[in-house]
Amino acid sequence: MKYRAITYLLLMYTGSMYAQTPASKPTNSAAHKSAQPAGAKPGLSIDQVINPVAVEQIEKTLSSDAMQGRATFTPGIEKAADYIEAQFRQAGLKTLTGGASYRQPFTMLATKPISASATIDGQTLGADRIVVVSAATQVKVDDHSGFEKAYIKAGAAFGMEVLKNIKAKKNTLVLVDSSFEKSFPRLARFTRQQFKSDNTIVFLLTSADPATWSITAEQEVTEQKLANVVGILPGKSKKDEYVIFSGHYDHLGIGKPDAKGDSIYNGANDDASGTTAVIMLARYFAKKKNNERTLVFATFTAEEIGEFGSEYFSNQFDPSKVMAMFNIEMIGTESKWGTNSAYITGYERTDMGKILEKNLTGSGFTFHPDPYPQENLFYRSDNATLAKQGVPAHTISTSKMDSEKYYHTAGDEIGTLDMKNMAAIIRSIAISSKSIVDGKDTPSRVDTQQLR
Fold it and tell me: Is residue 162 located within the same domain as residue 290?
């Protein structure tokens, strides 16, 4: 949820989601000690599948030093993908395409600026005030090129506005107010990876609104391969209706050593915890073997650099056929309400939260509306692409936004997480999703007219 979506580099300026502090209180809910959903396979106890020991085994592997922080485009993330594939295969999931691999490959472009210059109303801007987002090696555009104008004004949420303009997929000249001078260099680093597109977006750092302008730029462009890891359980009676369980498996990799000399950003909570949940849910539903709707278990890459994995994944589906998305982000520590609780982003956007609460009646576990509405978390994680297409796609999290001690630090390690509470959260997701998985409940859709 870093929500993430917004990206790490831009969120350094705008403020990001996720704050968590270590927790060690065990869950004491009787319902979670022996819960067995109605209709479960005879003899199958949910605790037999989703328990602290099993959760810790997966979490420990994904957040180990051997994974080298799982940064995109590194050997560490390839090791993580191999492990997730093995878990999906062992659980008995089908592949998305019917082939041998659970990987969902896609291509991105990496760009390296060589030169750039701009002239606005006869005055020249230096290269440090120009950022070009384009798949072309040579860019030459001006006020006669049919570009739309957009503005990022002083006081705006810089990262959100940048992403909005990039994802609009229009030829656009974006005039960035000079008050963002300190954050503008981060924009240049952020846009070095992108999907291939026929559109060009030019960001200019200036307080002017030029009547005439021209930009020329040169850059190196190379293709880079990435892959989500996705498995499915075909539905019985409603195979063409999908319920998605997801999390992102990438993190930040290796960085500057901290005071203890630790340079590996293990990402135990962010988001090995969500990926662990996806694997555990895959095991559970695969053993039940009674899902009426098709279940999709997706782990995304490249969330930390712009949610590219989830964007690619989401655009492969007809949104009208996706009944619900449970995106899981940072559930390793207790929420602001303590154990046996979590929150749902965009709670008020659909009635999905109410359905989940109904299915948890008597369990001792509680889902709450997002307590941090000012952070716009609904738009800042891997649920966002489908939500913007009307899908009831929400993120479930426990992260405390006001006390995120280990977020994006080398201290985000398994020792800061509570395995008992984490197992209780995963069990609650499984139980609360039952009527949706069974095809008995269908959450209301997101009103896209209300999305900004």
Answer: no
